[in-house]
Amino acid sequence: MKKSVVISLGGSVISGDPVNTELLEEYSRILEQIDVDSIGMVAGGGSIARSYIRILREYGVSEFYLDNVGILSTRINAYAVSSILKDSSPIVPTSFEEAISLLNDHRIVVMGGVLPGFTTDAVSALFAESIGSKILVNATAVDGVYDVDPNTHPNASKIARLTYDEAIKLSFRVGQKAGSNVFMDGVSLGIAKRSHIRVFVIDGRSPEQIRNIVERGECSGTIIE
Ligand code: UTP
Question: Of 60, 112, 127, 166, which one is least surrounded by beta carbons within 10 A?
Fold first, then answer.
């Protein structure tokens, strides 16, 4: 059976001026070395999406339209990421069918958002489900899941392991607070749960952890299973 991994690359990991090419080159080196046949990646919207959405919302633009602007921003980021990664498809697919078909000819396929109302984490979970991958790496702005927001609680502690249900409960609790930056939304976690996809939440600035995840199923962030 073909071995695969899906990586949700948070917008904050990609964003630089306008993209963090150095970090993406590091991803390229690591992905070249890991022992997997197929790599699915989903690029987040980051600062490009946030800037567009913030300014257009002031003009009373509908949330549906704003989501589409967000989706196009994630696709610009996906093009940037796939240009830098070796062995990546030069085409950014706009559907899962297209993504699966591109993986027949390319080791790495990078996509962005797909449908209004979703997040790129949810797209990553569906991408993993569609190709039968049991590993989903959420490379994000925090180095794992905390019991409370570490930015406002100095005593916050990182959680090494969570069940899907514990993670869903925590995501819901954190997500209810205004301005919160939830580690992963409930839709993504629900998809991971129904297909037994193990989720690794890691600091996106430490891509070397991906090697440990693939080889040993370990990371210094949080494992959700
Ligand atoms: P992200 O999922 O990247 O949101 O999509 P985010 O909260 O900015 O996450 P990070 O910081 O990149 O990790 C950016 C925006 O694109 C739209 C949403 O509006 C989202 O806020 N989007 C994305 C969709 O509507 N559907 C998708 O499938 C993906």
Answer: 60
